[in-house]
Write a structure and sequence with these properties.
CATH class of the largest domain: Mainly Alpha
Helix content: 55-70%
Mean pLDDT: 91
CATH architecture of the largest domain: Up-down Bundle
Radius of gyration: 29 Å
CATH topology of the largest domain: Fumarase C, Chain A, domain 2
Shape: elongated
Structural class: mainly alpha
Largest sheet: 2 strands, antiparallel
Order of helices and strands: HHHHHHEEHEHEHHEHHEHHHHH
Number of domains: 2
Distance between the termini: 64 Å
Length: 462
């Protein structure tokens, strides 16, 4: 005996998402709807999830891909010249409305793809209905996400390069200011703020090089793969690839869908590497600004306070940044876990990849700016730093000197070094300058960093 499903109105206070409705007229036609049967509202809200919000980030890229798609349809005779002209004009108008904030996506719309097709149909009638010829929402969302990832990686590269240059300027400004180096959380050997700053320059440049490699890896056009099995039309995939600015075609239509999760995971790996670099800086600065260390002064505009302890000056921005490193790691693992062991082809689980991509990008861009703010608004407290440096920090240098000057094996000099510490005269600048091995505090190789930055800038602009 068939039982009817109770269609109750969900409690709005417990809704998964409650986006504003579009100010533009909505036809409310679901692209997959074939009958008058109504989808249960709980299932609708649950499956739509955050898409009405997240797809606002995808909207301009969906428009861009739709422009290329209709041009391809014209080439194979699906559209007339007049129909192409009308569609391109309507898409341009839609894009303008989007940038003016006139478009919203309602839960009933499901996603940006539905909004675009419904609005084109409302404006152009049967011509609007032709836009989905030869494509599926499967490759439609995939190409929009791919375009978004390429765009965001380029922006992240440029912003990270700016931060690397800021670290380089910081390092040069305080090149000879002493800073104790640590291993096992204990003072180890003398370093400098110049040396410390350059460590982040090089780390960020490596992160950018990885990002560029990921950009090249994901620079493949999936549009034209449809639902994952192609279509019985001679789609101009080469022309569309060129039109969209992709470096190559992702050829196998099934692999286009199977690559979801793999490409997103790589994207998030690049972002995670940047966050690891920024998180280390945040953690160091949180430690170095405590009363126990007192190595840096921080602009008061970057600290918060306590509701009960008047003396507190908290670097909350750096604490949140440090926490967001873990969020980013979670997002990358989330992408892998969602996609792992799925059967070949599209599965609705993949919809959940949007959140880590879009939110993860926002976290990285915000974190880069937060790191830059702190970096440009701190100053070393040289007297305090030097006061905290113990004389034992020079023992390794004394051992090297003994080995070199007396011609004795280093291990023997190592044993004798403690006996030679008392007469040792501390000269911070001289000690820093003495460490001439490449990459050491006395040989920071400024020109090498300048060369790498120039090369990466050129690549990032390509």
């Amino acid at each position: 005996m068939q039982r009817s499903i109770r269609m109750h109105q969900p409690d709005s206070s417990r809704s998964i998402i409650s986006p504003k409705r579009r100010s533009t007229p909505s036809i409310m036609n679901k692209l997959w709807k074939k009958s008058s049967a109504k989808l249960h509202p709980t299932i609708e809200r649950y499956t739509v999830g955050e898409d009405p919000v997240l797809d606002m980030s995808l909207f301009p890229f969906d428009i861009k891909a739709s422009n290329a798609h209709v041009k391809g349809l014209r080439k194979i005779g699906i559209l007339s010249g007049q129909e192409l002209k009308e569609l391109l004009s309507a898409l341009k108008e839609l894009e303008k409305d989007f940038h003016k904030g006139k478009i919203r996506i309602a839960v009933e719309d499901e996603d940006c793809h539905t909004v675009i097709e419904n609005m084109l149909t409302a404006k152009l009638g049967d011509t609007g209905k032709k836009i989905h010829t030869g494509r599926s929402r499967n490759d439609q969302v995939l190409v929009a996400l791919r375009l978004l990832m390429k765009d965001r990686l380029k922006e992240i590269c440029m912003r990270t390069l700016d931060l690397a240059e800021t670290f380089l300027s910081f390092a040069k400004e305080y090149e000879d200011v002493a800073l104790p180096g640590y291993s096992h959380m204990q003072q180890a050997m003398l370093g400098s703020i110049g040396h410390y700053g350059c460590s982040f320059v090089e780390s960020l440049l490596d992160d950018i090089a990885l990002i560029d490699s990921i950009r090249n890896h994901i620079d493949a056009n999936p549009l034209g793969s449809a639902a994952g099995y192609g279509v019985a039309l001679p789609l101009d995939r080469s022309g569309i690839t060129q039109e969209l600015g992709f470096g190559r075609i992702q050829i196998n239509s099934l692999y286009c869908q199977n690559s979801r999760g793999k490409f997103e995971s790589l994207f998030l790996e690049g972002l995670a590497q940047i966050m690891m670099t920024l998180g280390r800086f945040a953690n160091d600065l949180l430690l170095f600004t405590t009363q126990e260390f007192d190595f840096f002064a921080v602009d008061q505009a970057l600290v918060t306070g306590s509701s009960i302890m008047p003396q507190k000056k908290n670097l909350d921005g750096l604490e949140v940044l440090r926490g967001n490193v873990s969020v980013m790691m979670g997002y990358q693992q989330m992408a892998k876990d969602i996609a792992k062991n799925l059967p070949s082809g599209y599965n609705r689980d993949l919809q959940l990849l949007k959140r880590p991509i879009i939110h993860g990008t926002d976290i990285v861009l915000q974190s880069i700016e937060v790191a830059r703010l702190y970096l440009t608004n701190i100053a070393p407290k040289q007297a305090s730093i030097e006061k905290k440096i113990t004389k034992d920090i020079f023992m390794a240098d004394v051992a090297v000197s003994l080995s070199r000057e007396k011609g004795i094996p280093f291990r023997e000099a190592y044993q004798l070094s403690a006996k030679h510490m008392e007469p040792y005269k501390v000269d911070f600048r001289k000690n820093i300058a003495s460490k001439v091995s490449l990459g050491a505090p006395g040989n920071l190789a400024w020109k090498e960093y300048a060369k790498r930055i120039a090369v990466l800038k050129r690549i990032a602009h390509e």
